[in-house]
Amino acid sequence: MSDDLVTGLLPVLGRPLKLGFNIFDVMHHGLHEKQISNVFGWLLDPEQTHNLGDRFLRIFIDELNRVSVGSEPLPHYSYLVRQEVNVAVGGAGSDIADLVLESEDAVVVIENYFTSDGHGHSYSGYLAFSVRDGKRGVVALLCRDEDVSLQTLGWEDAAVLTYGKLAERLLEHVGCDKVYQRKNPDAYAFIEQFHRKFVRGRGRVGDQDVLNFVVAMCDTGEIRRYQEQPQEVAAERFAHDLALQARERFGEGRDLLQRVKGRLSAFSEGPLRRQLNASRGEGFVRGVNARLAGIYQWTINVDVEEESNDLSQTRLQIKFGPSAWFANERDPSWTRTVDSSQADYSKLFLTGAGVKEVRQSTVSIYDVLDGLEPADPRLHDEIIGLLKGN
Questions:
Q1: Element (H, E) at 109
Q2: What 3 state SS string does 284-323 have?
Q3: pTM
Q4: In this structure, how many other beta carbons lie within 10 angstroms of the beta carbon of residue 65?
Q5: Domain-by-domain residue ranges, the chain?
Q6: 101 vs 116, 129, 157, CA distance in Å?
Q7: Quick check: helix, strand or coil at residue 205?
């Protein structure tokens, strides 16, 4: 291991090794949407044992009003809180919403999932249920990660609330209330741990820290460690070289890369494919996949219809992290690459077999983590430019 690796990684290894007790981690809670629905159902019900009254309910309604731009604000009335409600209207079968809030003149139907994705539920059905008695209806997506490219089939019109933002607002509210803390130490400890689970370890700051680690691995040439198999052995070697704290961040880096791969695959298969087909003709994109392995596994393949019958010559690729580094720094397949002093491995990279070139995109990995807008044209424009050889 070179001194450069130690120097490059020390600035991004600032988190204490000892994370402390958290009830969510001990119980492996928060790994399934039903568990999180139970937590929010408890917090939203003013009569529950948290002794918050309607304070969290008000925070929830305020956040809902904030993200529902252009809509008349929902009132702070008393709401009945229900879980696992069949919202199918008119004998249309079964469609179970995770949470429903209902007052005298308003209904909020909530779908809870880790990403802002309707994942098979009917947005129009949820909306019809919310307005069925002439009440004002709102459909909301409650999620850990917002990704607008996944919101289709009407769900693009849903209000999106994240666990992290709501947990942050709640802790801000009770964090300065010493009377509440003194009278309700157990409930306050639970709220603190809920915040730690979904805010301190995640969100923009947490993801940016892990992304800095991945980029430092690229910059020091140690990114090849990610291709070693099995991963557990590679992690142990890395831990031996840089101590236990580096081992933990190494695992986080791989998890982050897998999340990027999932989101980038979804965007490429959906919005990007439609954009390319719209500009080059329906059927221009023949397929999108991410089935490569080893150092190549952080690659999205986009097969396109061109004059050549050779599939290898009609394959475009979007690379990031280890795959981008290898293509640009080591792979002899590419005759034109980005100068090492100019390469920024926090960005996506584009390659085209026909042009034998590697290009650096303006789209960053964090843009992908943050959720690319369905109408974002950058990857489309850069791919068209690559095809034209511009």
A1: strand 106-112
A2: CEEEEECCCCHHHCCEEEEEECCCCCCHHHHEEEEECHHH
A3: 0.62
A4: 17
A5: 32-200, 263-388
A6: 19, 12, 19
A7: helix
